């Protein structure tokens, strides 16, 4: 990190218009954890748990995972860590899983769909998380929830595992939060109860954008065609934030776009108060947020929408230049 950004490590991402944005980092390995203090991230907004499953020839043992999760919590030194349960299946085939021959893996049997169908692996991971976080706060996030019932079913699994651990006499986490990733447009239209029952929601923008525009995030040809700063997408983000706020449900954004300056500024202008990104982006994003009037950005976005413009990228870039 350059000198300018190291100076910002202990400072808040507070805008001149008085809004404070929480900046978290994304992680997936023990080796990422030292970045927590060097980047000035307030916590780990997304801990992807896939890698520990991908680097082995068989399902990792519960004890090993519990130890790893415990070490992650130690390294976080009291900062919040959001553990995302296994987001695997289809394209990310585990070496020990029978490959699925699916025509559209991104829309196939993945993430929570696998977790709810093959409960053994998910239960084992939940047990490892509960044990690894014994005596400390545990934050669990379920990926790729497309309908309310999936969240409810997954949350019931958490409750069942907690009850079981208690019965076995194990020390439980000191507190527990269970959230959902909003990565499919359908979830934005879930019943009010969904927003009430979730402890928090995190927008998985990489997937949400691909499904919003029906543009494969892995397909270079179509991927770049649709701008994240498209006024329709930003308005969709605003609607999600409004629904969460109406129910007092904390909402954050943890896709790669959160680490891009214009995108981060526009998301904050759409009301997002928490962003999670690569550690290296924390400094630059904090630097820019500390100089930008979000009301002015929101104004630019609504006037671009009123003029029928497709994207606000040029307007925002010009304003910030
Ligand atoms: C996302 O979809 O935005 C996300 C954070 O999850 P992943 O990139 O791991 O699919
Ligand atoms: Mg995703």
From TrEMBL:
The entry's keywords: Cytoplasm, Kinase, Magnesium, Metal-binding, Phosphotransferase system, Sugar transport, Transferase, Transport
GO biological process: phosphoenolpyruvate-dependent sugar phosphotransferase system
Keyword Transmembrane helix assigned: no
Coiled-coil residue spans: none
Subcellular location: Cytoplasm
Cellular-component GO terms for this entry: cytoplasm
Cytoplasm as UniProt keyword: yes
Top-level taxon of origin: Bacteria
One GO MF term: phosphoenolpyruvate-protein phosphotransferase activity
Family statement: Belongs to the PEP-utilizing enzyme family.
Name by which UniProt lists this protein: phosphoenolpyruvate--protein phosphotransferase
């Amino acid at each position: 990190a350059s000198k300018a950004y190291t100076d910002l490590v202990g400072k808040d991402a507070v805008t001149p218009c008085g809004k404070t944005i929480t900046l978290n980092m994304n992680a997936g390995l023990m080796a990422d954890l030292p970045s927590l203090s060097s980047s000035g991230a307030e916590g780990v907004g997304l801990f992807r748990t896939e890698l520990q499953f991908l680097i082995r020839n068989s399902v990792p043992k519960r004890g090993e995972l519990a130890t790893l999760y415990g070490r992650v919590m130690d390294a976080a030194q009291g900062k919040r860590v959001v553990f995302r349960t296994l987001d695997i299946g289809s394209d990310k085939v585990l070496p020990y899983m029978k490959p699925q021959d699916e025509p559209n893996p991104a829309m196939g049997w993945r993430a929570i769909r696998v977790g709810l169908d093959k409960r053994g692996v998910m239960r084992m991971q939940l047990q490892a998380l509960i044990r690894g976080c014994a005596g400390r706060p545990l934050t669990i996030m379920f990926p790729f929830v497309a309908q309310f019932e999936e969240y409810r079913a997954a949350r019931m699994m958490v409750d069942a595992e907690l009850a079981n651990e208690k019965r076995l006499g194990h020390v439980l986490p000191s507190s527990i939060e269970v959230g959902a990733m909003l990565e499919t447009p359908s979830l934005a239209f879930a019943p009010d109860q969904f927003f009430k029952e979730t402890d928090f929601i995190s927008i998985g923008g990489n997937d949400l954008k691909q499904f919003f525009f029906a543009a494969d995030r892995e397909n270079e040809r179509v991927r770049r065609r649709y701008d994240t700063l498209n006024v329709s997408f930003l308005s969709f983000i605003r609607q999600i934030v409004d629904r969460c706020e109406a129910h007092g449900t904390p909402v954050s954004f943890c896709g790669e776009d959160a680490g891009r300056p214009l995108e981060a500024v526009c998301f904050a202008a759409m009301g997002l108060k928490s962003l999670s990104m690569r550690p290296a982006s924390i400094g630059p994003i904090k630097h820019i947020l500390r100089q930008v009037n979000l009301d002015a950005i929101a104004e630019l976005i609504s006037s671009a929408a009123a003029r029928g413009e497709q994207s606000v990228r040029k307007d925002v870039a010009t304003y910030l230049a």
